[in-house]
Design brief:
Length: about 190
């Protein structure tokens, strides 16, 4: 069974590395895609994450704030991305996830122009842009997906801290599991 572990909302303050290291120790073939709010992290922290070849480090908005991208026009998006790119070039993989999946036409266009694939929510419609790559895991009985958050808010049951025991219990009972990155399941919009 293909297993996709996706964790977003990662910042230095919301650091799930302890849990990820434990999962790697427990499951030697473990892989995960993590979505990092780069503008809330030091270059050193992002380098640490990127140094783990079993982590795919993708971008989570700019600051990882809810619906932050909805109010950017095309010029503001590109300017902000270019500033981020100057600081973090080489420290992330080419994936992007909008906080709360709040994609706009401008965000789709920016991702296409920058060569970024995007993660789509299973219930969202496919992006309209020809050539845009996206990962959208359908409800497939041969796929297990854990999509959680790095935050430690005790009210958020999708947080890795709160979900850890259930996640490991589930993984322990999946036979013939093969961990994959989001980018292993990319589709291209025709």
């Amino acid at each position: 069974m293909d297993v996709y572990i996706n964790i977003d909302e990662i910042t230095e303050a919301e650091n799930p590395l302890t849990y990820l290291l434990d999962l790697k120790e427990r499951y030697p073939d473990f892989k995960a895609t993590i979505f990092v709010a780069l503008m809330r992290c030091s270059v050193e922290y992002v380098e640490l994450l990127k140094s783990k070849d079993w982590l795919e480090v993708a971008i989570y908005g700019f600051y990882g704030k809810p619906r932050e991208l909805e109010f950017y026009n095309a010029s503001q998006l590109n300017d902000t991305f270019n500033k981020m790119e100057i600081i973090y070039t080489g420290h992330y993989d080419n994936g992007f996830k909008a906080p709360q999946f709040a994609y706009t036409d401008y965000v789709y266009q920016m991702c296409l122009n920058k060569g970024l694939w995007i993660e789509m929510h299973p219930n969202h419609t496919k992006p309209f842009l020809t050539g845009l790559e996206y990962c959208q895991l359908a409800k497939d009985p041969n796929i297990f997906e854990f999509s959680g958050h790095a935050n430690n808010n005790m009210n958020d049951m999708k947080g890795i801290k709160q979900s850890y025991n259930l996640l490991t219990h589930t993984l322990d009972h999946i036979e013939d599991k093969e961990f994959k990155f989001c980018s292993d399941n990319l589709q291209v919009n025709p």
